Amino acid sequence: MRPHPTLVAHYATPEAKPEFVNRLFDQGAKHYDSVVDWGFLRSGASYRRRTLRQHGLRPPDHLLDVACGTGLVAVEAEKILGTAENITCLDPSEGMLAVARTKLGAHFVQGRAEALPFPDNFFDFLTMGYALRHVTDLETTFREYCRVLKPEGRLLILEITKPGGRVAGFFFRLYFGRIYPFLTQLFTRSTDARDMMRYYWETMDACVPPASVLSALMAAGLTAVKRDTALGLFSEYTAMKARSATT
Ligand SMILES: C[S@@+](CC[C@H](N)C(=O)[O-])C[C@H]1O[C@@H](n2cnc3c(N)ncnc32)[C@H](O)[C@@H]1O
Fold first, then answer.
1. Above 70 in pLDDT, residue 179?
2. How far is the CA of 87 from the centre of ligand 1 (A)?
3. For the chain, which residues make up each domain, given as ranges?
4. Could you say which of 77, 82, 107, 237 would form a disulfide bridge with 88 (CB–CB 3.0 to 4.6 Å)?
């Protein structure tokens, strides 16, 4: 199941999506931290740390942070784990990884969520922050998550989800579709940063509903699949690998 239909204004075929997305983040990497910092009213770090804690990250967990980007999730995980030694960060964008490497001494791996270069039953905890829309296939990705987690290992996926109601939907569209990309260009003077935030909106707008994400998690063999929400916008998908799972 694809997270959203092919966005033909950006790439003609599903096969062309990874290269497009990679270029987008490579080019926007140096602006990413500042743009998400003010765009989310400086709440990003504390929200990421709080949800990691709430959903059970604790020492001495071995964490895989998929789609680590510039390391915003991993940096907060380090505060909880007390060390970055047990943290592995994976991302396909060398530009994003280069920024992350300046922030923490985790293990950095260039790779994609759909084909994780790790053995079976390896990690206690797996996170993915705001990147679900960028994979090519949800079920393939979640099967990989299930494979690399140890039995009873936990998964936390953070996402922004377009609200259902008309009024909330209107303001969501106005902010993420218009105001945020406009301010991004104004503050950064970078069309690369603006394009990154425009695409951010377009993928949120086109994304499959939460029920489809939950179904894909279950279809991948994960258990205790659940979605919590914050402020009606922030989705926290959690799941666990069963104790008796074979891989
Ligand atoms: C919006 S950033 C999120 C960064 C960070 N996790 C955070 O919480 O801010 C999305 C990241 O997903 C990465 N990404 C895109 N396609 C991916 C894929 N197929 N597998 C893993 N990561 C991917 C991008 O390179 C980018 O760094």
1. yes
2. 16
3. 14-163+201-240
4. 107
**Phi then psi dihedrals of residue 72, to 5 deg:** -65, -35
Report the C-alpha gap between 19 and 65 in whole angstroms. Answer: 21
Which residues, 6+ apart, have CB-to-CB distance to 131 below 8 Å? 66, 67, 69, 113
Q: DSSP labels for 9-52?
A: TT-SSGGGHHHHHHHHHHHHHHHHHHHHHHHTTT-HHHHHHHHH
Token pair listed for 73: 């999730």
> Is the CA virtual torsion 196, 197, 202, 204 positive or negative?
positive
What pTM was computed for the model? 0.95
Nearest to 24 by CA among 39, 10, 38: 10
What distance in angstroms lies between residue 1's CA and the mean position of ligand 1's atoms? 18
How many residues are present in the chain? 247
Q: Establish whether residue 91 lines the binding site of ligand 1, counting it when its CB lies within 6 angstroms of any ligand atom.
A: yes
Using 50, 70 and 90 to split pLDDT, how confident is the model at 165? confident
Q: Which CATH superfamily is domain 14-163+201-240 in?
A: Vaccinia Virus protein VP39 (3.40.50.150)
What distances in angstroms separate CA 239 from CA 43, 107, 174, 211, one per listed residue? 25, 24, 32, 14
Determine whether the shortest distance from the Cβ of 64 to ligand 1 is under 6 A. Answer: no
**Overall average pLDDT of the 133-142 stretch:** 97
